[in-house]
Amino acid sequence: MVNTSSTHCSIMADRLSQLQDAVNMQAENLFNSIGCLFTSAPPCSFDKSGKTPSQNDNPEDMTEHKRVFATLIARNAKDIDALIESLPSEDSSAELQTASMRLLEQEGEDAALRLQRGIEQGDKLLEEINRALTEIANTQLAINRITDASQGDAIKI
What we know:
By secondary structure, this protein is an all-alpha fold.
């Protein structure tokens, strides 16, 4: 019998691992895109003069990087959404837990019945063993009496 509770937990753990990997990848993409912005963005002044520094000499170099990072970030965000949607909802988790509990209760009742039958069989075997031991002891005593009686007759002069 397949344990649905452990299967459900395994699927849930797998989904959570995938979600963690996707979130880590998204963080890496954001970090790299910020790095690209940092290296390619023109410096700006924080003084109140309003002067703007000159633009980067070759803005075309970074255009492809910007497009790649934007695509990666958007795709990864969709992957994260899909993984979150694939996680079981709280309601289904409660339903699955209830079904798992019912299954476990039934398995426990079946095991208790098997145990009770085993105990009854063990008690019967114990009674048979005790009867056999009693018979063996009685037979041994009878043999000892016969041996003692036969030796007693031979020793008497």
